[in-house]
């Protein structure tokens, strides 16, 4: 289970970083720019190019004012296909941030996330988080939202935090989220594309809510944030001018980008990021006994889950564990992986064991990996070369 006891927020100009620590160990790291196209932001974009895709489908390149032009498909689930031309404007939301040499991915079906709810103006039904297991609470929340739903078509997602909230606060948030969307529509009528219509809240607040069960300290270097944090967090709030230096974040980040991770038992994990997938190999360090291999693989599963979240590995992740790859030996290992990844905000899912004997994980991509953030491919070999002895 993912947990954190300390969140560190450090801002420098338009850039800010967030580090999550648990017992002094770096568990998550996020860096963002106030002016970049962050996931959840809503823009008035301008179509710059209409492009043909496979299977006779159509897409558009859209200028939203970001460094790279973004991509939008003409086909979108729940919406009619659009047939736009160059120069036309469209209200879009960032679904996936830019990474490597690709720009952001956009959708037209805007969703506005709050503390307890997600408002879907283009939706038509109510979803409740599967993490709310008490059926009585589920029914109560669903009924309250049904009674307060507007006559116009709209959909809602009830978030996990709503389970412990006052029902009146949940209903009040319905009005707040509707007003945010209405404000987007009003701005879009008078804005000149490309223009930012709505920026999602500082990720710090979402992390505080997500880890409230284990969180005891929030560190910031921005006095303006202290009062805002106090409104939602009752634990210790510290101001430190240079928290990254104080907590040794840079050294931990450097270590987090190394390809090899040593395990306490003596084994190693080797992590290789490729364009198609992430390959992870567990080295047994000459261990041969079945009991040793089983213990090593369980230890490796825990560490691999931590590394996936810390490095923000995503897409298809293929793991070659040590020893025999028979299902009877891998079942417990996959259970450990699933348990350690439970609660991941990017919905990591242990798919199972492939015919080749590798454990496969799928994880939604939201942000670039640490390696993509802090390095560039070699211009000569593209990162595939080897040095001769």
Structure, described:
With 389 residues, this protein is an alpha+beta fold. It has helices spanning 135-147, 167-190, 203-210, 223-230, 243-247, 249-256, 290-311, 327-341, 370-374; strands at residues 6-12, 15-22, 25-33, 42-52, 58-63, 70-73, 89-96, 105-107, 112-113, 117-120, 126-128, 155-158, 195-198, 217-220, 236-239, 260-262, 268-273, 278-283, 315-320, 349-353, 359-363. The chain has a 6-stranded mixed β-sheet, with helices on one face. A hairpin with a 2-residue loop joins strand 1 (6-12) and strand 2. Helix 7 (290-311) packs parallel to helix 8. The two termini are 44 Å apart.
Sequence-ordered SSE layout with sheet pairings:
Layout lengths: L5 E7 L2 E8 L2 E9 L8 E11 L5 E6 L6 E4 L15 E8 L8 E3 L4 E2 L3 E4 L5 E3 L6 H13 L7 E4 L8 H24 L4 E4 L4 H8 L6 E4 L2 H8 L5 E4 L3 H5 L1 H8 L3 E3 L5 E6 L4 E6 L6 H22 L3 E6 L6 H15 L7 E5 L5 E5 L6 H5 L15
What's the helix-strand series? EEEEEEEEEEEHEHEHEHEHHEEEHEHEEH
Number of helices: 9
Report the helical percentage.
25-40%
Rounded to the nearest angstrom, the radius of gyration is 23 Å
Strand content: 25-35%
The counted number of beta strands is 21
Structural class: alpha+beta
Instruction: Report low-confidence residues grouped into runs of 5 or more.
Output: none
Shape: globular
Largest β-sheet summary: 6 strands, mixed
Overall pLDDT confidence:
90
The main sheet orders its strands as 16-17-18-19-21-20
**What is the CA-CA span between the terminal residues?**
44 Å
